[in-house]
Design brief:
Strand order of the largest sheet: 3-2-1-4-5
Order of helices and strands: EEEHEHEHH
Distance between the termini: 40 Å
Number of helices: 4
CATH topology of one domain: Nucleotidyltransferase, domain 5
Structural class: alpha/beta
Strand content: 15-25%
CATH architecture of one domain: 2-Layer Sandwich
Shape: globular
Oligomer: single chain
Radius of gyration: 17 Å
């Protein structure tokens, strides 16, 4: 069993290159709610292809991820490594098939980056347009966007590790 504090999240059994056929489920664990996203990489594009996303009550997240695993057949489930993530790892490992690895992924700065992405992607209306972008606050939870960022960061690390281990061409 992998130590949840480890960041050695390169799983050799995930198979080949990162391509659009690779699907992962990412979870941003929290005390009362969790962000969950089903995503695939888009080679050559910094943002992942999001198939499904939601903010779920923490008490329901293991059941939801199990349902999504059955539907989407991901190659891995990625769980943010914060304090809440450690207990989430244990719950998911017991509930999911052994063939689907549950991997801890670093969470640092993902909440801040998710907030910035939500603000950037939403167009303010009316008088809200006068509020400077840095002072805007999203009007809904953005935990699902944190989950998307966890997957995007993991895809980026996988792509770097693939290029570092690729043989040199003559």
């Amino acid at each position: 069993m992998t130590d949840p504090r480890s960041h050695d999240d390169v799983a050799p059994d995930l198979g080949g290159e990162l391509d659009a056929g690779l699907i992962v489920i990412a979870v941003d664990p929290g005390r009362s709610k969790c962000g969950v996203a089903v995503v695939s990489p888009r080679p050559g594009h910094p943002r992942a292809l999001v198939h499904w996303r939601s903010v779920e009550p923490t008490l329901r997240v293991v059941e939801r991820v199990a349902e999504l695993t059955e539907t989407w057949q991901p190659r891995a489930v990625l769980v943010g490594d914060g304090t809440q993530g450690r207990s989430g790892l244990r719950g998911l490992r017991f509930r999911l098939p052994e063939a689907v690895p549950v991997l801890p992924v670093p969470e640092e700065n993902t909440s801040r980056r998710a907030r910035e992405r939500v603000v950037q992607d939403s167009l303010p209306r009316g008088i809200a347009r006068l509020v400077p972008r840095g002072m805007r606050v999203p009007n809904q939870p953005w935990d699902d966007v944190v989950a998307i960022l966890l997957a995007e960061d993991w895809f980026a690390r996988q792509a770097v590790s693939e290029t570092e281990t690729a043989p040199d061409c003559p």
